[in-house]
Amino acid sequence: MNRSARLGGLGFLGLVALFVLIQLIPYGHDYTNPPVVKEPAWDSPATRDLAVRACYDCHSNETRWPWYTDIAPVSWLIQHDVDEGRGRLNFSEWNLRQRSARDMAETVQRGSMPRWFYVPIHPDANLTAAEKDQLIRGLQAISNTSGQ
């Protein structure tokens, strides 16, 4: 076996070992959802259903944790996104001040939310134009009702 093949094999084994070791890092493995304290006064059940489909995984205490959230480093990225999302806007803690409540409809209207990488792996979040319009109207209706 030549030297470059041996180095390549050692490099591959090193990457596999690193992948196994990073699974031991606890960040991104605690999937306890806090309790739902208070939701917004939704303008309709349909608007809530749209928010659940497109927003709740990152912006509520009702996050769904699919199988791939157990695999680092993907788990780290998802945990970070959920922590950040809940910190900005949390539909499950509407009794508290929501930093991004006033901007949420505009954020959806601009296409900034849901994020571009979320929709391909969550096809139910891919809203039609009519659904997006309904969600925007519903978010506008509740935007001033958080504990600001």
Overview of this protein structure:
The protein contains seven helices and no strands. Helix 2 (about 45-55) crosses helix 7 and helix 5 (about 105-110) runs antiparallel to helix 7. It is an all-alpha fold. The protein has one domain (about 25-140). The mean pLDDT is about 90. The chain is about 50% helix and about 0% strand. It has helices at about 5-20, 45-55, 55-60, 75-90, 105-110, 120, 130-140. The termini are far apart.
Roughly what fraction of the amino acids lie in strands? under 5%
The major beta sheet can be summarized as: none
- The rounded distance between the terminal residues' Cα atoms is 68 Å
- Helix-strand makeup class: mainly alpha
C-alpha geometry:
elongated
Helix content estimate: 40-55%
Order of helices and strands: HHHHHHH
Please give the radius of gyration in angstroms. 20 Å
Could you list the spans in which at least 5 consecutive residues all have pLDDT below 50? Answer: none
Number of individual domains: 1
Question: What is the mean predicted local confidence, pLDDT?
Answer: 89
DSSP summary: helix tally: 7
Strand element count: 0
